[in-house]
Write a structure and sequence with these properties.
The protein has 2 domains: 208 residues, Alpha-beta prism (UDP-n-acetylglucosamine1-carboxyvinyl-transferase, Chain); 198 residues, UDP-n-acetylglucosamine1-carboxyvinyl-transferase, Chain, CATH 3.65.10.10. Helices cover 30% and strands 24% of the residues. The protein contains 12 helices and 21 strands. The strands form 6 sheets. The protein has a 4-stranded mixed β-sheet with strand order 1-13-15-14. β10 and β11 form a beta hairpin. α1 runs parallel beside α3 and α2 runs parallel beside α3. The protein is globular and about 60 Å long. The termini are close together. It binds shikimate-3-phosphate (S3P). Shikimate-3-phosphate binds next to α3 and α5.
């Protein structure tokens, strides 16, 4: 198989959510360019609209007029977060600082995911969180109000928890410090700093002071490295050619997959690297035709590639030797139990793979074709990871719910066809 051309991946999902939330908190109009128009980001836009923010239809160049850091209105309806954990947890932080209650609901997958991790620090700041049914699960009602300062040590390295606390602190005008076991993605810190907030980051701790205000900003959203990862993998697995991935966010808290892919033997280079709007951005080039070998992913490497681990498992099936990932128990509480799902699907394709409590082992046999049916559990990253295996010569992989990619990468299947058309 030959790959060729440039794949311009859509805007980064994490940054897109934050761009809307921070624009809503700004004192005046913010311009956002390159936002990801996907189901997840539309959920954040819808939640903000329900609280009085005039968010236009998502568009490549849009303006959101902020209502100030604590300017949301009591919601006119439930906040429907659909499939999006980021919408739920970050918006919960913002709501906690407001003198009203908001009820968060989501789809079946989101309703299984843990919310106690975000409720606990918000409660420690003075908010109250109530659940309709099982504790720690949606539907959940956040009763906001006057918050107090917080110093919080997070048990998990979760950017969503960290960001919820930072947004609550900034909106309430109180001082917060968050520590985490390993550094998670730091877009919120970077974006707050770009908007004039005195954010201090030291090692694995972040601090924002009392009385911070959020300035409106003209911001560009770079391409999503988690979406680019699928095409980096495709390029690395191809027999010939090269793929060019322009304008990808290269924030080091996000580039773990590229690093590990290079370590497995892929020829990856970065061109035109620069700093834009507080983020590192560049063009990733992937040359085909080098054999891949298995690797060991250590727990400290996990946060910077957490969303790419299902893809890594797929890729590992085409490498020579064993790939082992540990310290990734978070995968069990993502859009699906990604450890169980990826291992079951690999086995369905006759790959030697095992679950670990906090990761997986895949014993690859080098380049080959894959045939069989896989279950996505409506999880976009599983659909795309197995989509890459299905694109390999001689493969026939039936993905049960291809449309679920719309959560983060509408247009994925077209981009895949174009990249492999040569
Ligand atoms: C995200 C943080 C990560 C990641 C998710 C997006 C974010 O989740 O898996 O896709 O935008 O903050 P956790 O905070 O649960 O690790």
């Amino acid at each position: 198989m030959r790959v060729s051309g440039a794949v311009r991946v859509p805007g980064d999902k994490s940054i897109s959510h934050r761009a809307l939330l921070l624009a809503a908190m700004g004192d005046g109009p913010s311009r956002v360019r390159g936002i990801l128009d996907s189901a997840d980001v539309r959920a954040t836009a819808g939640a903000l609209r329900a609280m009085g923010v005039d968010v236009p239809e998502l568009a490549p160049d849009m303006v959101v007029v902020g209502r100030g850091a604590r300017g949301l209105a009591a919601p006119s309806r439930d906040l429907d977060c659909a499939n999006s954990g980021t919408t739920t947890r970050l918006t919960a932080g913002l709501v906690a600082a407001h003198p009203f209650a908001a009820r968060f609901v989501g789809d079946a997958s989101l309703s299984r995911r843990p919310m106690g991790r975000v409720a606990r620090p918000l409660e420690a700041m003075g908010a109250r969180v109530a659940y309709d049914g099982e504790a720690g699960r949606l539907p959940m009602t956040v009763h906001g109000g006057d918050l107090r300062d917080l110093e919080w040590t997070s048990e998990t390295s979760s950017a969503q928890v960290k960001s919820a606390i930072l947004l609550a602190g900034v909106a309430a005008g109180v001082e917060v410090t968050v520590r985490e076991p390993h550094r998670s993605r730091d877009h919120t810190e970077r974006m707050l700093a770009a908007r004039g907030v005195d954010v201090w980051v030291h090692d694995r701790a972040v601090h924002v002071p009392t009385g911070a205000r959020v300035a409106p900003l003209d911001a560009a959203v770079p391409g999503d490295p988690s979406s680019a990862a699928f095409f980096a993998a495709l390029g690395a697995l191809a027999g010939a050619g090269e793929l060019v991935l322009p304008e990808v966010c290269l924030n080091p808290t996000r580039t773990g997959f590229f690093f590990v892919l290079a370590r497995m033997g892929a020829r990856l280079t970065v061109d035109d690297e620069r700093r834009e709007g507080g983020e590192d951005v560049g063009t990733v080039l992937v040359a085909a035709g080098t054999p891949l070998r298995g690797t060991v992913v250590e727990p400290h490497e996990v946060p910077a590639m957490i969303d790419e681990l299902p893809l890594l498992a797929c890729l590992a099936a085409c490498a020579e030797g064993e790939t082992r990932v540990t310290g990734a128990s978070e995968l069990r509480v993502k859009e699906s139990d990604r450890i169980a799902a990826v291992v079951a699907n690999l086995r369905a394709l006759d790959v030697d793979a095992d679950e670990l409590p906090d990761g997986f082992v895949v014993r690859g046999r080098g380049p080959r074709a894959f045939r069989g049916a896989v279950a996505t559990h409506a999880d976009h990253r599983l659909a795309m990871g197995f989509g890459i295996l299905g694109a390999l010569p001689g493969s026939d992989v039936r993905v049960d719910d291809p449309a679920c990619v719309d959560v983060s990468f509408p247009g994925f299947w077209d981009a895949l066809r174009t990249a492999t058309a040569a």
